[in-house]
Amino acid sequence: MIELNDVGYSYGGDALLTDVSLNLSPGSFHFLTGPSGAGKTTLLKLCYLELQATRGEVVAFGRPARQLSRDGVARMRRRVGIVHQDCRFLDHLPLVENVALPLSVSGQPDHADSTEMRELLAWVGLKHRATALPPELSGGERQRAALARALIMSPDVILADEPTGNLDWEMSLRLLTLLVELNRMGKAVLIATHDLALIRQAKTQLAARVLRIRDRTLQVAGAEL
Ligand SMILES: Nc1ncnc2c1ncn2[C@@H]1O[C@H](COP(=O)(O)OP(=O)(O)OP(=O)(O)O)[C@@H](O)[C@H]1O
């Protein structure tokens, strides 16, 4: 659904990423690891078309990214749910309104009171926190709210940047379980993480590919896993 073909990226100076090829096909599950500053967030942004490759080609749902108009990019993004590292909530809006934001941004009626919304919040274990403001939420609640917001448009692809960064092990497992369930529904999942224990745990449940950014390229991770 999203393909990177020999992609390179530079923020202006030396190349940060070179010759990166990746195929997020339906039902695939990828982990992305690598040292801090290696370019994991940058790679996710390339997949989300938040950045444009400086070399090579990104193909999103069969269309080369360079050929997409602004509307085309917006349509593509509706099919991709992204969980940002810093969650990015509007602090003055209750959780349920934050989760519904992608709907209102795309011009759809507000579904804050809908059955689907209630089911989604129940699924991530946040039904009882629907009216809480983001600053009142715990780290784990924020991460699960960010996941709910990423899912509200029923995306085909889920990109998550350090989704368990601030979570204890029990909460990390809970989030992983949700991502595994989504993957079993056929969604492509890509998780950037430093958490090797999480990767090992996931590999007991599914056939995940573990990739690592090393020396500016994307490699299959080695024996440390
Ligand atoms: N907008 C930007 N302009 C210039 N340089 C940037 C920009 N964003 C990121 N960088 C640099 O690009 C490099 C890769 O950043 P990126 O956030 O992709 O790494 P990362 O692997 O996700 O790191 P971490 O694990 O610490 O989150 C870093 O050196 C960073 O300082």
Automatic annotation (TrEMBL):
Q: Which PROSITE patterns match?
A: ABC_TRANSPORTER_1, ABC_TRANSPORTER_2
- Please give the InterPro entries that the UniProt record associates with this protein: AAA+_ATPase (IPR003593), ABC_transporter-like_ATP-bd (IPR003439), ABC_transporter-like_CS (IPR017871), ABC_transpr_LolD-like (IPR015854), P-loop_NTPase (IPR027417)
Where does the record place the ABC transporter domain?
A: 2-225
Q: Keywords assigned by UniProt?
A: ATP-binding, Cell cycle, Cell division, Nucleotide-binding
Give any single GO term for biological process. cell division
Q: In the record, what terms sit under GO molecular function? A: ATP binding; ATP hydrolysis activity; transmembrane transporter activity
Name the domain of life: Bacteria
One GO CC term, this protein: plasma membrane
Entry keyword Transmembrane? no
Note whether RNA-binding occurs among the keywords: no
Q: How is this protein named in the record?
A: Cell division transport system ATP-binding protein
Please name the taxonomic classification of the source.
Bacteria, Pseudomonadati, Pseudomonadota, Alphaproteobacteria, Rhodobacterales
